[in-house]
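Quick start: what a row looks like.
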Amino acid sequence: VHFTGLQLSGFHIILACKLAGIKKTILTIRGMSGDSIYFNPFKKFILTWVLEPLTLLLVDKFYSVSEYISKRKIPSFFSYKSEGFIYNFPDGSVRNRKNLPLLESVKDFILDDDVVVLSVARINKEKGYHVLEKAILELDDIKNLKFIIAGDGEYLDTMKANLKHQVANKQVFFTGYVIDPKSLYQEADIFVLPTLHETLSLVLLEASLNKLSLIASNTGGIPEIIEQGFNGDLVEVGDVKGIESAIRKQFNDHRLRNKYGENAYKKVKEKFNEDKIADKINKIYENI
C-alpha cells in the first residue's frame, strides 16, 4: 500500500494496514502538523512528536515531495527508511479536465487592456489571504489591474466583506470553489500565492505550465519552484508591502512578465519532468 500524508490520517492508514496484514507500505510526506499556525497547540504537539514519528516508525519506506521537507528533523531521524524526495507530478496529471462553468462570467469581468492576477487555494489565513487582502487594498489606485480569487474556505466571507468596494468596482472577482481552474490560468497574467507555509505547491506548478509570471512567499519548498528574478518574485512571509511591490513591478513591465512566464514553463518541464518522477517511484516499488 502506497499512501500519502502524515498528520492524523496517515496514522489511521498505517494502523489499518497493520491490522489488515499488509506486508509492505510506502508513505509520501506532503506536509507535517508542526507547520500549521492556526492549530490547537496540544493537538499539534501530540501529532508532531508522537503520532507522526510513530507513523514513520511503522512504514517500510517513505519519501517527501520536496527537498525542504526531506531535511526536516523527524524525517531525518528515520533516514534509514527514506528514499529522499520526489516532486509532485506537475499540472495534476490525474485530474479530469472540465470546462469551468464560471468562465463566461470571468470573461465579462476582464477587459482587453487589463492585467489579471490569479490566486487559487483554500481561502484561509494559513494560505495568507489576509495578507493578500491588504496588498489588494494598497493597489486600489491601478484601475486596469484585476484580481481573480478562486477557492473556498473559512476566510472567504471575511475577505469578501473587506474587499466589497473592490468587488463592486470590478477590480476583484471571487469564483468560489472550482473543480478545475485551468480556464482561469488561461485568463491570467500573474499568479500569486501569499501562503504562510508550504511543502511545495501544486498550483505554482500548474501556473508555470500555463506560462504565468509567479509571486509567492519565500517559505518551505517554494524556492525549489521559484528562482528570484528568473521565473518570478519571492517575498517574505506576511510581507504586505513585498507582495504589493512585486505586483506593481510585474504589472508595469509586460516584458518581464513574459520572461518570467516562459522561464517558469521551461523550469517546470525540466525540473518536474513527469517521466523522471514516474521512474523514481517505480524504482521504489521494485526495490521494496
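That is the whole record. The radius of gyration is 20 Å. The CA atoms of residues 48 and 96 lie 34 Å apart.
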